[in-house]
């Protein structure tokens, strides 16, 4: 896992993904938990989906093609950059935000819980569902699973337009 | 429901009950969401269990005794006072806390969700389980239910000693 050099100080993990909801969760966190605490560290956690979950590649045809593997890896990197850029657009308006980035890979609910167990943040903030390609299949289950399993306070934020 | 005259301003609902966990949730709220926001209103929501859930009364023997009904009502009032006093001991150390109290009656998960729907707070804070006599029977389900149903951000706080 990249970027795990976060020190043991007051910190808040925000799980971000491609969803608008996770950006709303980040915004809620900045407004409610970070803005008054200049010493807090905001840890942005993005979990790359496993390669099998990536769409748009015909892995049955090109299973062992180096080009396809490279393309899949690039696609994953592009996803990370895209999400982190969107996150930056949210937090750049807040002064004195110490941001660390952690990139995981695998099943979101497991990676999030394991990361929280390792980093021991003061709070975990996440959207109520989201999580990219798993969204439809596992609606709501990522946040539910994490809320049950992690020991720190968990904030579950819904998109304000959700019914 | 008593105490529903809360105005439409920035407010945070904390669901409190007899559990240590809910007092820890209140403390987390005060430290993380209220301390920097002197204009926020802290709404303490306590849900009285339905009379059928009260222990220590042999309702089979004294089903229609006025004395028992009075005693049950007094027991409910004592519970409210006890929880609110414990809550006050937590929040009295924080300056400038605007506190409102809402007392509901019925099934905790429904009353909490209905209260949130009515008051439209900015955030709901609650322990991960708790809820007095229902605790063992419905472990975890109150916060899970509320996290799914309410539209505002929900903070689920566990007791730090929970494994």
From TrEMBL, chains A, B:
Residue span, UspA domain: 10-158
The protein's name in its UniProt record: Universal stress protein A-like protein isoform X2
PANTHER family assigned: ADENINE NUCLEOTIDE ALPHA HYDROLASES-LIKE SUPERFAMILY PROTEIN
